[in-house]
Specification:
Blueprint (H helix, E strand, L loop, with lengths): L1 E7 L3 E5 L8 E10 L10 E11 L3 E19 L4 E20 L5 E21 L2
Antiparallel strand pairs: 1-7, 2-7, 3-4, 4-5, 5-6, 6-7
Length: 129
């Protein structure tokens, strides 16, 4: 089942303590584990994030995409008639943020944007006779 939610004005903020020149194009990636739904502590999902910032000294546009996934298999029942259940979830989101940049010793980025979110669930049950 796929659900799509439109997220409006998702706040994004980061701060850079380096006083380096702001790049015109900045690519960010992250790989790791995440509690993707934050309130659901049932499991931790593998996660990949990719974002690219384009802009000048004052304004930046940042498209981003995130994918997280989790799958598990459980076997139960008697030894002669075990039941196997496989379930999986994939979370995807994409958005575009507009960021205001400041310069100086601490260089914060503050802004917001629009995005979409989709969740895909799978479930399979089988009898292993």
């Amino acid at each position: 089942m796929t659900r799509v939610f439109v997220l409006l004005f998702a706040l994004a903020g980061t701060a850079s303590l380096a006083a380096a020149q702001t790049p015109a194009v900045d690519v960010r990636t992250a790989f790791g584990a995440s509690n993707y739904l934050h309130g659901d502590i049932e499991y931790i999902a593998q996660t990949v994030l990719v974002a690219v910032r384009f802009g000048g000294e004052k304004i930046a546009i940042e498209p981003e995409a995130v994918v997280a996934w989790h799958s598990e298999t459980a076997t139960f029942g008697s030894a002669s008639e075990p039941v196997t259940q496989k379930s999986g979830r994939r979370f995807q989101s994409a958005g575009v943020n507009i960021l205001r940049r400041w310069s100086g010793r601490a260089a914060p980025f503050v802004g917001g944007g629009v995005g979409v979110y989709a969740e895909h669930r799978t479930f399979e049950s089988s009898f292993n006779r």
